[in-house]
Amino acid sequence: MINILHVERGSFFRKVIKDIAAQSGLIHYEADSSEAALEILKKEPVDLVITGLELADVSGEEFVERLRRTQFNDIPVMVISSSDSMEDYEKMFKLGVVDFIHKKDISYDRFNRYVQSIVKEDRLVTKLREINIAVLDDSQVSLNVIRNIFTLNKIQNVDYFKDPKELLASNKNYAIYILDLILPEVSGDEVIMKVREKSSDNVIISISSVKNYKTISNILLIGADDYIIKPFDSNVFMARLKATVRTLLLLEEIKELKSRLR
Description:
Blueprint: E1 3-7, H1 11-23, E2 27-31, H2 34-43, E3 48-51, H3 60-68, E4 77-81, H4 86-94, E5 99-102, H5 108-130, E6 133-136, H6 140-152, E7 158-161, H7 164-169, E8 176-180, H8 188-198, E9 203-208, H9 213-221, E10 226-229, H10 234-261
Parallel strand pairs: 1-2, 1-3, 3-4, 4-5, 6-7, 6-8, 8-9, 9-10
Helix pairs in contact: 5-10
């Protein structure tokens, strides 16, 4: 069951969203101010926050800024407003909102499609928390950055390596390999090829500050599934990981279908 929190000054539109949520089978909470919203967040699990631009105590922009400074900063936020201002759009997207919908465009179908995408994303995160992940980077700073991203997302089944030989000597099977390109003693492309020799099903993501398109195309051709340029944004990093997990889930479904057909 998905829990949503709608923060809006006007009671009429809060009722509109409440009715849509009821049709979608969602648990609905509502508040007219940022203070009331934060109190609900402290007491109830919330999967999606919907906010207007005008609240009883502060603006929607101030509310989202405040939300980002709390332990609830990873909850996706959608804006529903009557504003047509591009400045409002830009401000809210810079704050990390996931969508900005005009009130006249809101409908059961669009709202339900978005909520279903939240359900799918939750499935991807759950899968990420279940599978084994290996991270190889000779930079302790880079390892710490990735470790912090995983810790914030409660992803714990991760082994961190600074030495490529140690990773290659490991008998443990990893669903996802995150591999630095520039490594001591053993080149990153050699590591990729050796990992790919072990299994064609595992996902390999190469990370590097190298931006040369020929290098990137070569890395993808020899076996990497994706290439992320350093320094990377944590949200983009997680989005790319979720995309790879989507592929893993699809492969699992194909395998299961094949086994049923035998």
